Amino acid sequence: LNLERNFISRLDFSLPNNIEVLLLAENNITRFFNIPPSNVKTFTLSRNPWQCDCNTLPFRKWIIAHNSEILDVNETRCSFEEDRESLRGKVIITLSEIELCPKLIRNYNLMVAEVSVILIMTVTFILLCFRYRYHIRVWLYSRGLRCLKKRSERHVGKLFDAYISLSDEDASEARKHFLPVLELKHPFYKLFVPQRDIKTGNFEIDNLMRRMLDCKRTVFLLTKNYLENEFCMEIFRVAFENSLEEKWHRIILVKYGPLPPLKEMDQSLKTVMVSSRCLKFGDKLFWDMLRYEMSEKRPDTSIDYELQDDSSDDVPLVQEF
User: pLDDT value at position 60?
Assistant: First the structure.
């Protein structure tokens, strides 16, 4: 079907199915509004005032896909009256998408910016999650997500949830602000406190170690008084050695006040403080972190707890080593 030189400006391709050749050169066609039928195998398209803009992209794609069927594909050009001077008379098949539609650059830049922002936010989120993974686990655990913590069979048969190691000078403060929170509030831990639960005269190291082995965890309330007490430090060193022999992390360190520089501390204490987490009493998540470090406990037990008179503080509860 030869339709050349007929001043055609629009074509809807309502053609008989037996047409295989369609000659459209030298008309006034500015663009195709639909796809030519597949039965047409040969075209001529040159010397038409083809509009070249963003709407021409589908036409360009079709030309590239059917360039072998277009006899004058290298002469199919943009209109010489095109608004953009850079496109006037240009062969359409040689133009890039950006040349036809410059706003694609803005779209690409916007897409790149959006992807970059999403990537940066994702990486930042991952880094923050990694950096604060412990605090996240603690927070989730405090909200009831217990599956984040592994249960140990070594806890079975232990009489106490924790052994509390502290100096005599700090006993009164601990009885008021530390022990009641653990023993009187959910989940009601059962604690062993030597100054309270051992009769005077039974403070030999071996006896304390046996008591410590009856506990799931050993909590050391670290203060300046504790570090200066040789008997307390000997208890810590023996507990540390037992922990290494058992290959079981049962020690929980709590900074219960200002401490001297790390370099001035006992070597075994320094090793534990460097290799494990040391909780700081008074921090925002302190109690949640301490409960997370403690062994899993069902809220089905409680113990009677009474504050002792302050007058008892005058009597040493642990003899100097």
Answer: 92
Instruction: Write down the pTM of the prediction.
Output: 0.59
Residues 45 and 164 in one domain: no
Q: Clarify whether residues 53 and 116 are in a common domain.
A: no
For residues 164 and 245, membership in a common domain is answered with yes
Same-domain status, 277 and 166: yes
CA distance 47 to 77: 7
Q: What share of the chain is helix, strand, coil (3-state, %, to 5)?
A: 45, 10, 40
The helices-and-strands tally (H runs, E runs) of the chain is 12, 7
- Kindly state whether residues 281 and 164 are assigned to the same domain: yes
Say how far apart CA 88 and CA 85 lie, in whole Å: 5
Q: What is the pLDDT of residues 236-256, one digit of tens each?
A: 888 888 877 777 678 899 998
- List the beta strands (DSSP E) in 94-214: 160-165, 191-192
Residue 254 lies in a domain: yes
Which among 76, 40, 41, 84 is positioned nearest to 59, based on CA atoms?
76
Closest CA to 235 of 321, 315, 159, 170: 321
Q: Which domain holds residue 130?
A: 102-149
- What are residue 70's DSSP bridge partners? 43
pLDDT in tens, 196-213: 888 766 677 778 888 888
